[in-house]
Amino acid sequence: MKMKKLYSVFICCAFYWNAIGQSEIPMPAIPQMRQLFHEKIDQSQNAILSMLGKNGVLRVSDDIDVNLQITQMLKVRVNNLQASIERDSTISENDKYIWLRSVNDLLSDFITAYKKQEIKGLDLGDLLEAYEQAMQAELKHQSIASIVEAHGLDVGNVLLSNSVFQKNNGLHQANDLLVLKTCERYPEKILPILSQHINNPFVDSLVTAVAHRNPEDVYNYAGAGNVFSYRIAAIKDPLVRSICKMAATSSGRFYFPFLDEIYHNKISIDSIAKIRDDDDAYYRLLVKTEIEYAGRRRRGDTPYVMNVLTEKLQSKAVEVYINEINALHDEKSEAVRFRRIENLTPQELYYLCVLGEEDIYTSSYMGVYARIFQRMKVQRSDSLLEMVNYDFYKKFIRMAAAYNELDDFLKKMDTQKSEQVMKSFVDGLDTKNSLEDAVDVADSYASINNPELKKLMINEVRVNLAKCNREDNRRGQTIYGLLNTIFDSKEEQGGAKDASASLGISTVYRMPIAELKDASGKIIIQQFFYGDKDGKNVFNSFLAAFSNAYWKTIVKPEWVEVRSTRGVPIVIYANKPLDETKDLDAHAQAHLAEYLDSLNIRPTVVIHRGHSYYVKSTISQLVPSAKVILLGSCGGYHSLNDVLNICPGAHIIASKQVGTGVVNITLIDMITETLRSGKDLDWPLLWKSLQPRFSGDYKEKFDDYVPPHKNLGAIFIMAYNKAMLTSKSKS
Asked: Are residues 150 and 200 in the same domain?
């Protein structure tokens, strides 16, 4: 970019010296009938000076010399054009009107284009130079195409809009060149542009370039069945032909994920067509190809449309397998529930996990995870990763950590290998555009019980931090610096150190009651219930838990209001779990939200009561005012990012595995009673007091709940966002 700017300045300077190198051409006597045209040109010059300048000097750059030079060009070059037209005896009297009008149109068109941000002030000198060259060519009946080619797109657009060049013998070629320049500037718009210029001589080369960069775009246009699609079909490039062949069939999307294999003659469309109606065979081919592509990617190769293949693999994993085992979540027989995946290999099951993350239920994941290793002759997790060419391995590790299976996963490989895997897991977090991998590392650390592995992760974070410091890598310094601070705080003082101050965020160890009260001193809590069988039972348990002297319940048609009668005023709004098959529960939630909004009531505590497949619905209805959020469902922990996008800084409680009513109601009771008593929510203290309340299976289930002060992924996100805001304010 700097070189381009220097080049532009150089050109402007050259134009300037060319302009002032000539003595200003004396203006001859102007006939009365043409004086008006000269006055209009003068007005346009002054309009440009007024629009782009101050005190008679243009301000088109930060360089005062350049500004002075282009100002001089506007005055000298335009005045000389006027004088040249008047003095040129080869131009007829009538044509002199045309050329003077053309000069004024040039200046007017520049003003219009500048206001539309279609040209820069710095381009004015280039435009004047191009116009003078084009004028000379036109007067000699020569083509202006080479002039358009030599100048920039914006200059060319203004130049060719001038009426005086509309009959030039090079106009068609010049317009073709402008289309090419437009495509070069906006490569993401090449196909839409060419669809309006299908006879452009650059169509073949440009479409071919798009096909090799983004084949899916060409596929979409090739299958449109219009004139442009026929034009694409005539291109002889082998890749374009392969794309067009698939686009011409009614099942093109079925074949398209295998474009790279088809293009390289490793598989044929006919062989894929044979498994069209066999879900298992098609899924198996997708997995096989995905693994091969992952291997190529590890070697530095990038197969065509690998993202399309992965998306198709994900959709098949969810539609064919995950949805079915999810739907059977109430089935007590595992043989019945998991019958659909009985014939899948460990690799095929692996992709159900990593690509079904957003849809798979906790119990479904646990069943799939167990079956992965049950079907391996030697149950080694490093062998599994090798079998899939380490494809999505960071996601698999993160999911294992989130479901409390990471220790089990790491135990299934040698110590040396597990260390290598975890080092790789921690490395390179600064190279990704997203924070997903860094959040995964933070979350996973909290799930590791092996002290040696924890020490390894801390050391690797510090190695990467030192590397980023040496390279002055600001993003890496921020990411690894935050992780180092977070991990340190978890190891010091038995994991009880609050690092919030050093991270620049509000404490996650304590939620002050004052922050939960509205202007009147009231605390508003909203609970979401759903109308399945379990939801109705949970709702009745909720009402029973608050049937005492400290609370009173007001029943409305679609919701209930539970109000405290003593202590701090608290109101719990909870929709009734009305029939889900008729969407009555959703209507009740929507009507309750409208009611609260109409009264300007903003919940600061939100509680989700329902299975994991309802949690997305609750999150979509969150309000930014929520500061404490309990996701009382299975696997609610996997939705932290979604929650924080709506409620930055919220304290989140969620389970990594099975959410259970007994734990949820105990948590709700503890939170509401603490607040009703006028106390802050001190999470370490509350968690310590809750521990003795559970025993047996319930203790194990309670241990899967993650309190705000141990939610390292959420802490990292909040700290990173704060660091970015601080950095922006300083800059």
From this structure: no
